[in-house]
Amino acid sequence: MTTFVPDPILSVANLRVSFGGRTEAVRGVSLAVGRGETHCVVGESGCGKSISALSVMNLLPRGSTRTADHIRFHGQDLLGLSERQIARLRGDKIAMIFQEPMTSLNPAYTIGSQMSEVFERHRRATRRWTERPNCWRAWASPRPGCAWASIPINSPAACDSG
Predict the structure, then answer these.
(1) Alpha-carbon gap, residue 12 to 35, rounded angstroms
(2) In this predicted structure, which of 47-51, 54-58, 69-73, 91-95 has the lowest mean pLDDT?
(3) Which domains does the chain possess?
(4) Whether the Cβ atoms of residue 106 and residue 153 lie closer than 8 Å to each other
(5) Which of 41 and 158 is assigned the larger pLDDT?
(6) How do strand 70-73 and strand 23-33 relate by DSSP bridges?
(7) Whole-number percent of the chain with pLDDT over 90
(8) Which pTM value belongs to this model?
(9) According to a count of CB atoms within 10 Å of the terminal CB, is the N or C end of the chain lower?
(10) How far apart are the first and last CA of the chain?
(11) What is the pLDDT of residue 93?
């Protein structure tokens, strides 16, 4: 069932993804996300949930093919953007929360150093600003006053809400 969403933030119509021209992993996915809405994509393992999300952000592996009637983010069709243009959006305007953070975050670096990268790239923050102990306080820290930016990912404190 498709419901009408006036002025959606994200709109995907008839998304199809295939690998090597043979295996069609996603067939005809359509969705619309309105302002303030949260959507959960639910399905069996291997049904194409992650591939659908990755294709919206153009993060598919080499050898894959993505087609759609449109993939619009704030009215802009992402299908026509160059890799450089979509890279400017990723992490700043549009992002994905991956299923397994231990495969998405590098345990050799602190959470803060990896978060700093986003602010430095998209918000023009300096490394010096992001290393200040209280700079993270303004950003949804689950432990107010805690400099979680210095906590290693494999530390129990990284998951402790306090």
Answers:
(1) 15
(2) 91-95
(3) 10-99 (3.40.50.300), 102-158 (no CATH)
(4) yes
(5) 41
(6) unpaired
(7) 33
(8) 0.65
(9) N
(10) 42
(11) 84
